[in-house]
Design a protein that fits this description.
Helix content is 42%, strand content 14%. It has 383 residues and is of the alpha/beta class. The strands form 3 sheets. The protein has a 10-stranded mixed beta sheet, sandwiched between helices. The chain is elongated.
Length: 383
Amino acid sequence: MVDTLSPGVRASSGEARALLLLDQLPGVGPRAIGALVETFGSAELALKARRSLFARVAGDRAARVRGAPELQNRVDQGLALGARLGMRVVTWSQPTYPSDLLRLADPPPVLFLRGPGEFTDGAVAVVGSRRCTTRAKDLARKIAQALSARGVSVVSGMALGVDAAAHAGALEGAGATVAVVGRGADAPYPASHRRLFSAILERGLVVSEFLPGTPPLPHHFPRRNRVMAALARAIVVVEAGRRSGALITVEHALDLGRDVWAVPGPIDTPSCDGSNQLLAEGAVPLVSIRRFLREAGAGEDTVQARLPGVAHAGAREVPVRDTLAEPERRLLKSLHDGPLHVDQLAARSGVGAPTAMALLVRLELRGLVEQMPGLRFRVARAA
C-alpha cells in the first residue's frame, strides 16, 4: 500500500527512510542504491553492513559518512515536512509503485506523491522547450485539452514554456495531469508557477523522487525526464531547440519503446531545430490533433464527429450543430463577427475563460471552429 506520512512515523517502517539515507550519500544514485539492495537484501541491511563490504559497492567516501548525524537529520526533517504537507510515499518494492518505472535502468527508489491524482494507464507526456514561441504554448495547451477531454492524463515537468501550457490545458478538460518535478514536492519551481502548482494539487498529482525540501539542482532535471518518459505511453514534443531537455525525455522514451510524436515547425526558427530533427530521424509528425488522438488510441468523446460536421447517434446521423449546448451555441454565434480572442468570447458567452477554452476545443474537434495564433478563434471554413 502507499503510506501516508504522519508526524513521527517513518515511511514504510524504516525501509523508505533507509533508501533516502542511501540517496543522500556522495556518489550514490539510483543505480548504486539498486546494487546495494541487491547485494545486502534491503536498504536497511545495507546501512548496517560492514564498512569494507559497503565500500566495495558504494565507494569509500559513501562508506565513511553513511552514519553521519547531519544526513539522518536531513532525511528526518524532509520526512517531517512531507508529513505536514500530506504527502504519500511509495517505494519500488510496493505494489502501488508504477511498474513501468521498473523498466528504467535506474528507477527511483522512492516517490513522493502530493495531490489527489493517481497514476493511470495510457497517459501521454507533452513536453518542449522553456524558451518557446507563443505558437508552441498555444499548441501545447490545445493538445493537452484535447487529451484531457477524453479522460487521458497529461504528464509534463511543470517548467516554463511548453510544460506549463500543457498542464494548464489539461486542467481545463476532464482528465488529470501529472507534474514530475526536479525538486522536492513541497514547493513549486519556478516560483512564478505557484498558482499552477496549487491548481495541480487540487485535481492532479505532483511527483518527485527527491526528499521534501530538496532544492532544484541542474542534475535533477535529467532524472526527472526519465520518470516522465516511463509514466507515459507516448511522448509529444511540441517545440524543442537542439539542446532542449525535452530531447532527453525522448531518448528515454525510445529506450522504453514509447511512441514519439513531434510538431513540425518553421525551419528558420531555432527553437524548432530539435523537434524538426526528431522528425528527420523518424518521429511521427503531429499535423492533425484529430489524427493524433485517433492513432494514439485516445479515442473520441461522446459528441465528436467522425466526419467534419456530423455526429453519429446509433445508425442515425445528427448534425453536430443540433447537439450543441447553449454556451457552445453562443460561442459560435459570437464568432460570426470575425476572429476573436478567447477572453472576448468568454465575456460574450457569459462563461469563464477556462470553460470557454475547453468548449472551443470541443467545437474545433467537431470541425466547427478553427484556432488561430494568439488564442484567437474563427468559424471553420467548412462549417
